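User: I'm designing a mutation panel for Phosphoinositide phospholipase C and want to avoid disrupting the core. Could you give me a predicted structure to guide residue selection? Please restate the sequence first so the numbering is unambiguous.

Assistant: Good idea. Sequence first, for numbering, then the predicted structure tokens:
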Amino acid sequence: MSELKMWRASWRLVAGGSELPKPNYSEQNCTWSCIFLLCNLCPYSAGSHDGRQRKERKKTVSFSSMPTEKKISRVSDCINAMVDGSELKKVRSNSRVYHRYFLLDADMQSLRWEPTKKESEKAKIDVKSIKEVRTGKNTDTFRTNGTYDQISEDCAFSIIFGENYESLDLVANTADVANIWVTGLRYLISYGKHTLNMIESSQNNLRSSWLSDLFDEDDVNHNKQIAIYAAVQLIKKLNPGLKNVKIELKFKELHKAQDKSGSDVTKEEFAEVFHDLCTRPEIYFLFVQFSSNKEFLDTKDLMIFLEAEQGMAQVSEDTSLNVIHKYEPSKEGRLKGWLSLDGFSNYLMSAECHIFDPEHKSVCQDMNQPLSHYYINASHNTYLIEDQFRGPSDVTGYIRALKMGCRCVELDVWDGSDNEPVIYTGHTMTSQIVFRSVIDVINKYAFVASEFPLILCLENHCSVKQQKVMFQHLKKILGDRIHVDSPKLEDCYLPSPSELKGKILLKGKKLDTNCTASEGEVTDEDEGAEMSQRMSIESTEQQTNAPKKIPLLKDLSDLVTLCKSVEFKDFPTSFQKQKPWELCSFNEVFATRCACDFPGDFVNYNKKFLARVYPSPMRIDSSNMNPQDFWKCGCQIVAMNYQTPGLMMDLNIGWFRQNGNSGYVLRPAIMREQVSYFSANTKDSVPGVSPQLLHIKIISGQNFPKPKGSGAKGDVVDPYVYVEIHGIPADCAEQRTKTVHQNGDNPLFDESFEFQINLPELAMVRFVVLDDDYIGDEFIGQYTIPFECLQPGFRHVPLQSLTGELLPHTLLFVHVAITNRRGGGKPHKRGLSVRKGKKSREYANMRVLQIKAADEVFKTALLPLREATDLRENMQNAIVSFKELCGLSAVANLKQCILALSPRLTGPDNIPLLVFNLSDPYPNLELQGLLPEVLKKVVISYDMMIQTSKTLLESSDGVYERILQTQKAAMEFHENLHDLAVKEGLKGRKLHKAVESFTWNITILKGQADLLKHARSEVQENLKQIHYSALTCNLSKGGTAGGSSGSTDSKSRRSLEAIPEKATGEEELTDEEN
């Protein structure tokens, strides 16, 4: 072993300041290990030039990784790795970070580290003195350390030891190493000196019996071995994502290592290969975390996981048993009510753990609002299946769009031969299809994907003679489906989607109501002409020259009822003269200018009127505009080129998934309310709306295919993941993981990201997996999901190809959490800390209108607005402080807090030191014995949390009513606001500013009232969580599982909470030591 010790010493010397993991090489290859290590540290080695910058994205420098070590998938693997040792960073409260080599003594009684200035016997911790192993940056040392923001949450862990609950705070080089130490130490704490016996006894587990039964079923001749082909097929059946070649190679490697001549497979060999190929370490680490270090989850363990992590409500033992019976593969497990690692994996990969909330798979939104209050899935030049200038036209374009839930298709109709109108893009070389054929297809597929109204955008360029043919085809084929009832003049809004179910609306030009002749003249709308002039100056402007006049058949005109095409002049004219059933089409370039120059007016315009945006004529390649640019303005109909895949279509498809793929999505309330302030270009928080924090951990990937057409690296895949946020400008962001080299089968990323979402109702999350390549990073797969459809907890994300097809067995494994606050750390370091006293709080204020009567009314809201903010902030601050003392981050819920706290609340004889008195609607903690100092702090923090929660519940109703009274009184000025402003001498910009300030104030009042209502519901939910968690942990007194815990209110609320501060400065890690 002398050579091995020499190598270890050289490794410590050379890698002392680096973050390279210590390779687990045997004594035989130490020399090669040293050479390889030195080559990696050399600044001129080949591996150090894998970084480059692309135009679209910034790339990080990535280095070739060490050869893949043996997969960790048993407790024994963790213990062995700990005995071998690891380099870990030791974090101190003085902002210093020390590199130390930690290892577990062979007798598993002590944890040691070196080098150290201490005596060797003092540089250790006895395993029996360890109270708790805490994951993440969740101790005071981490929180007060100046390097907090530079330390990865996934690589950090703390060992709490001794009677004074001291902490040893450590950071591993990878999340995998951190998981090894956390899992191993927790196992040692649970079983102490019996650890070895437990490891040995756990080998004969549920998996062994299950695999044995499977093997015996295939071993029909009872030879105790099966053919290698049969063994490969059996494993392939159990894990369809594996490739046959890989499974067969694994068996052959095993046979070669055993010097075995035959190719038949024994039961032991089958189990070993299955274990190596089908055990996912990331799921194993999660499994042991909730199984109380057993080799299975019992019904109680599973209840805790489902409730605390997956956010499942009303979980009972029957719920757990149903999951076990559905997903546990072993007979023994189903019989005993145990879920094995394989059953747990089956559950996590099932549809139940899909990231998309199943509630949104069917229509779940209010469909009784006016049509203008919805985004409508729309297609541009639906008949084209390639480019806009020379591409072919085909009816399959309509079939595809309608099957995908499109509710607005386009028909560009021209005179054809044999008196049959045809569809194509005029002034171009696109091919033609017969109008009648398209109407037949529309009739067949109109309501296959959705029962809600379908809009046909009719661009009519036909002669009167062929218009008559068009009319006959429409009436004969579509018949009563066409909506022909004229709107009432007194109607202020369009009908709702529910009222128009099964109806087809024609959008087009319409003759004046006083026209009595069989035909008349209207202005032509010709997008094809725009494209033919695409190189001229006019192509970048909304057409302002005198429009061409064309004849229009009255019968055809009468079919247009709710979607009359009119020309847009400007916003003041539209506000004054436009009718709700009149619809304007905006060229993409002109719409962009409106969004930039008049963002507030554009939003207000779309509250009442339908607006259609179509792609710029410059897009002759059928590329797509970004629909979010116009959705943020409230534009309902953003016409997309369905034939062109890519990011923009991913956003469109993902967005319209959220309401049962019905083609209609209700717009955010702030875009629908008559009096509300919202600017499409806001780069800050939205008034009256509290940002939410999205926490996403990319854990691993499964079965990433080699990108199509990429053969430079053979079958090698070097994947990395981008997480993108799309929404209003303030929300747009992206983060990327590191590259995992040469592993497309089961790459482990273990990286966490945090995003502030200022307008959750308009945000989308997109996961993109790319293959890191020198030549250019290749697309592997993506998945796009609306923020409001995310399911919290551990979830699998099914990836889709560039053209939208599901990639078989290709998944991302992630963890999702959504919170309203970010807590912990020094306020000046963390930036978004919730530790804000009253003096530093930002209170919602009213703007001055310079209209005396209205300003006096708004002043009455100042005090209740401050009180509402204090009630919310005090409650939320107290909750975060309690979470921190429980050793958890702000992402955790109170169920997780009580579960984490429960071992500390139990004495040496399993007698509780504290119990929750559940007979009170506000559960208080009652002392049952002597408490250590650290628990006294927890009790004080818990009491503060309960007290602030109680104050909020008891005071919120009165404050809420006072805010609403001010809002009601202010709204009395709304109709006469303009006249009042003129009387006060306001005009021009000052008049406009007064109106804007009025809508701002009303928005603030509504928003703050909603936030207070939400805070009330949050408190009631927290009390329920405390109640049920206390019962689950047997720490209760005087309560029942059915207790309501003070839940008295079920009013509807927005899921919007308090606004955090903005992030500020950062500090760097230091390796210096005193």
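For picking mutation sites, this is relevant: The CA atoms of residues 794 and 1071 lie 35 Å apart. The first strand starts at residue 86 and ends at 91.
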